[in-house]
Sequence to fold (341 residues):
Amino acid sequence: MEKIRVGVIGCGSIAQHRHLPEYRMNKNVEIVALCDKNEERVHRVAEEYGAKPYTDYRELIESGTVDAVSVCTPNYLHAEISIYALNQGLHVLCEKPLATSREEAEAMIEAEKRSGKKLMIGHNQRFVSSHQKARELIKNGEIGRIFSFRTTFGHGGPAQWSVEGKESWFFKKDEAIIGAMGDLGVHKTDLLRYLLDEEFAEVGAFVEDHAKDYGDTDDNAVCVLKTKSGIIGTLAASWAYMGKEDNSTIIYGEKAILRLEEDPTYSLIVQYVNGETVNYQLGKIQTNEDGGQRSTGVIDAFIHCIVEDESSPVSGEEGLKSLSVVLAALESSRTKKISEI
Fold:
């Protein structure tokens, strides 16, 4: 079988630490082209991977040398580049959030339908072993009806790991559009939708932007969410957790509590109402800290759906549903009212 020829657009931290190493590990992939507006950076990374460097994404997409691209750029370019690539007949893996507005997201979905190519959004929390096991337990009725949840994704912020530090696009409103809620909150809205297997109906949120003394994007948020069936819970997304990263989720059910990624040894702990506890060691979640899972599973899933001509495992529609919760939370914070989703 011929290898899938891949180009990566944007050579920042997410490309260097996730996409490129995982593409290189996949036997069905050949990395042929890289693009970044920073000429020094793209030449340096391209040399490491034996790829051709570009500074204009249009030239890479139009080169005829790639079958698929990863879009690892600032948020404001996700829709523009993804649509251009799809229109040129390329498969697209786009980092989350898929877009910065509903209109952009819908345009991406329409471009995918016209092109007949695959569009996948990089929501990697669906591929974490503990999350997949929890979804299985919930679906088979192991913990009964779900009453509530609590989920958190917080760390010290992109300044600690972005290639540009405090000068990163994450802190620039005109490039990020959405800050911590787009970086971390959308991970958790997608995870909750995946675990609970239902949609959210309402959100009330406090979203602040003064945890950092640099940048002008949101950096600290707490949301209260309600699903269509009436499950209620909280979601926190923050760049203000200056100690250890928190990427935990707790699901409160009729028969048991699921504790996900809360314990350093056991990635899933099930506490039953009869006092029994079951501990699962399922490998560590991917993290910006040392010791995290080596592969997110996203790249392998993307390449698999291309090779086998299967549906995208995280479609544009799924990405839009998860983004819609974030957009509603931002609206709630602005209006000081509960927002419908």
Remarks:
- The radius of gyration is 20 Å.
- Confidence is low (pLDDT under 50) at residues 288-293.
- Residues 128-291+321-340 form a domain with the Dihydrodipicolinate Reductase; domain 2 fold (CATH 3.30.360.10).
- The first helix runs from residue 13 to 25.
